[in-house]
Protein backbone atom coordinates (compact mmCIF):
# COMPACT_ATOMS: atom_id res chain seq x y z
CA UNK A 1 0.00 0.00 0.00
CA UNK A 2 1.36 3.40 -0.98
CA UNK A 3 1.94 6.01 1.68
CA UNK A 4 -0.44 8.95 1.70
CA UNK A 5 1.04 12.34 0.91
CA UNK A 6 -0.09 15.54 2.57
CA UNK A 7 -1.11 18.34 0.24
CA UNK A 8 -2.20 21.79 1.32
CA UNK A 9 -3.46 24.69 -0.77
CA UNK A 10 -4.81 28.17 -0.26
CA UNK A 11 -8.53 28.14 -1.10
CA UNK A 12 -8.49 31.92 -1.53
CA UNK A 13 -11.07 32.78 1.10
CA UNK A 14 -10.85 36.25 2.65
CA UNK A 15 -11.54 34.93 6.16
CA UNK A 16 -11.49 31.76 8.30
CA UNK A 17 -12.35 28.44 6.65
CA UNK A 18 -14.75 26.47 8.89
CA UNK A 19 -15.40 23.30 6.90
CA UNK A 20 -14.17 21.28 3.95
CA UNK A 21 -15.90 18.26 2.41
CA UNK A 22 -15.05 15.88 -0.43
CA UNK A 23 -17.82 14.84 -2.80
CA UNK A 24 -18.80 11.16 -3.08
CA UNK A 25 -16.10 10.39 -5.65
CA UNK A 26 -13.34 12.44 -4.00
CA UNK A 27 -12.97 14.55 -7.16
CA UNK A 28 -14.32 17.79 -5.77
CA UNK A 29 -13.83 19.66 -2.50
CA UNK A 30 -16.17 22.30 -1.10
CA UNK A 31 -15.07 24.84 1.52
CA UNK A 32 -17.16 27.03 3.86
CA UNK A 33 -15.86 30.31 5.22
CA UNK A 34 -16.59 33.32 7.40
CA UNK A 35 -16.23 35.42 4.24
CA UNK A 36 -19.84 34.32 3.51
CA UNK A 37 -18.88 32.14 0.58
CA UNK A 38 -18.57 28.53 -0.47
CA UNK A 39 -15.88 27.52 -2.94
CA UNK A 40 -15.75 24.35 -4.99
CA UNK A 41 -12.51 22.91 -6.30
CA UNK A 42 -11.81 20.09 -8.70
CA UNK A 43 -9.05 17.89 -7.29
CA UNK A 44 -6.77 15.85 -9.54
CA UNK A 45 -3.74 14.34 -7.83
CA UNK A 46 -1.94 17.19 -6.10
CA UNK A 47 -3.63 19.87 -8.23
CA UNK A 48 -6.73 21.88 -7.32
CA UNK A 49 -8.72 24.08 -9.67
CA UNK A 50 -11.43 26.50 -8.53
CA UNK A 51 -14.62 25.66 -10.42
CA UNK A 52 -17.19 27.73 -8.50
CA UNK A 53 -17.39 30.54 -5.96
CA UNK A 54 -20.87 30.52 -4.43
CA UNK A 55 -22.14 33.72 -2.84
CA UNK A 56 -25.57 34.14 -1.29
CA UNK A 57 -25.25 33.86 2.45
CA UNK A 58 -25.31 37.01 4.55
CA UNK A 59 -23.19 35.65 7.39
CA UNK A 60 -20.37 33.20 8.01
CA UNK A 61 -20.91 29.81 6.38
CA UNK A 62 -20.28 27.08 8.95
CA UNK A 63 -20.66 23.82 7.08
CA UNK A 64 -21.28 22.17 3.71
CA UNK A 65 -22.59 18.73 2.74
CA UNK A 66 -22.71 16.91 -0.61
CA UNK A 67 -25.76 14.92 -1.65
CA UNK A 68 -25.33 11.44 -3.13
CA UNK A 69 -24.51 11.76 -6.86
CA UNK A 70 -27.72 9.87 -7.70
CA UNK A 71 -29.44 13.26 -7.14
CA UNK A 72 -27.03 15.21 -9.34
CA UNK A 73 -24.39 17.65 -8.17
CA UNK A 74 -26.04 19.11 -5.07
CA UNK A 75 -24.37 20.84 -2.17
CA UNK A 76 -26.00 22.19 1.00
CA UNK A 77 -24.59 25.05 3.06
CA UNK A 78 -25.64 26.53 6.41
CA UNK A 79 -24.86 29.86 7.95
CA UNK A 80 -25.03 32.29 10.82
CA UNK A 81 -27.67 34.11 8.72
CA UNK A 82 -30.23 31.46 9.84
CA UNK A 83 -30.44 30.07 6.30
CA UNK A 84 -29.79 26.75 4.71
CA UNK A 85 -29.15 26.73 0.98
CA UNK A 86 -29.10 23.84 -1.47
CA UNK A 87 -27.00 24.56 -4.55
CA UNK A 88 -27.26 22.67 -7.85
CA UNK A 89 -24.75 22.53 -10.66
CA UNK A 90 -26.92 23.25 -13.73
CA UNK A 91 -24.02 23.10 -16.18
CA UNK A 92 -20.30 22.62 -15.69
CA UNK A 93 -19.12 25.24 -13.18
CA UNK A 94 -22.52 27.00 -13.16
CA UNK A 95 -24.22 26.63 -9.78
CA UNK A 96 -27.62 28.02 -8.78
CA UNK A 97 -29.66 28.03 -5.59
CA UNK A 98 -32.12 25.15 -5.84
CA UNK A 99 -33.62 25.75 -2.40
CA UNK A 100 -33.35 28.32 0.39
CA UNK A 101 -34.92 27.70 3.78
CA UNK A 102 -37.90 29.93 4.53
CA UNK A 103 -37.58 32.78 7.06
CA UNK A 104 -38.40 31.59 10.56
CA UNK A 105 -37.46 27.95 10.02
CA UNK A 106 -34.75 28.68 12.58
CA UNK A 107 -34.42 31.75 14.79
CA UNK A 108 -30.65 31.55 15.28
CA UNK A 109 -27.53 30.45 13.43
CA UNK A 110 -27.76 27.14 11.54
CA UNK A 111 -24.53 25.44 12.53
CA UNK A 112 -24.65 22.01 10.96
CA UNK A 113 -26.14 20.40 7.86
CA UNK A 114 -25.93 16.90 6.42
CA UNK A 115 -27.62 14.96 3.66
CA UNK A 116 -29.18 11.62 4.56
CA UNK A 117 -27.97 8.37 2.96
CA UNK A 118 -29.32 8.04 -0.58
CA UNK A 119 -31.62 5.15 0.42
CA UNK A 120 -33.71 7.67 2.41
CA UNK A 121 -34.23 9.89 -0.64
CA UNK A 122 -33.27 13.51 -1.09
CA UNK A 123 -33.39 14.56 2.53
CA UNK A 124 -31.19 16.60 4.84
CA UNK A 125 -31.01 17.64 8.47
CA UNK A 126 -29.93 20.96 9.96
CA UNK A 127 -29.11 21.90 13.55
CA UNK A 128 -29.44 25.41 14.93
CA UNK A 129 -28.33 27.47 17.91
CA UNK A 130 -32.05 27.93 18.65
CA UNK A 131 -31.93 24.37 20.03
CA UNK A 132 -33.90 22.75 17.23
CA UNK A 133 -33.21 20.39 14.37
CA UNK A 134 -35.07 20.56 11.07
CA UNK A 135 -35.52 17.79 8.53
CA UNK A 136 -36.02 18.85 4.92
CA UNK A 137 -37.26 16.43 2.26
CA UNK A 138 -37.67 16.85 -1.48
CA UNK A 139 -40.88 15.57 -3.07
CA UNK A 140 -40.08 14.73 -6.70
CA UNK A 141 -43.79 14.48 -7.56
CA UNK A 142 -44.52 18.09 -6.65
CA UNK A 143 -41.00 19.53 -7.03
CA UNK A 144 -41.20 21.05 -3.57
CA UNK A 145 -39.30 20.83 -0.30
CA UNK A 146 -41.11 20.08 2.96
CA UNK A 147 -39.78 20.81 6.42
CA UNK A 148 -40.32 19.18 9.78
CA UNK A 149 -38.96 20.68 12.96
Instruction: Please give the alpha-carbon distance between the first and last residues.
Output: 46 Å
Rg of Cα set: 15 Å
Widest sheet, order of strands: 1-2-3-4
Mean pLDDT over all positions:
92
List the defining traits of the structure above.
four-stranded antiparallel beta sheet; about 0% helix; 12 strands; mainly beta; single chain; about 150 residues
What does the model show?
The protein has 149 residues and is mostly beta strands. Helix content is 0%, strand content 54%. The chain contains no helices and twelve strands. The chain has strands spanning 17-22, 28-33, 37-44, 47-55, 61-66, 74-79, 84-91, 94-100, 110-115, 123-128, 133-139, 144-148. It has a four-stranded antiparallel beta sheet with strand order 1-2-3-4, with no helix packed on it. Strands 5-6-7-8 form a four-stranded antiparallel beta sheet, with no helix packed on it. 30% of the residues are buried.
Amino acid sequence: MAAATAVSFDPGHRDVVHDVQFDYYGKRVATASSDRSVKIFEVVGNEQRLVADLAGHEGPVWQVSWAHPKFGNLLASCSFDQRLMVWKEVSEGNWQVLYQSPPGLHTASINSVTFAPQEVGLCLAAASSDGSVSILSYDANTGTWTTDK
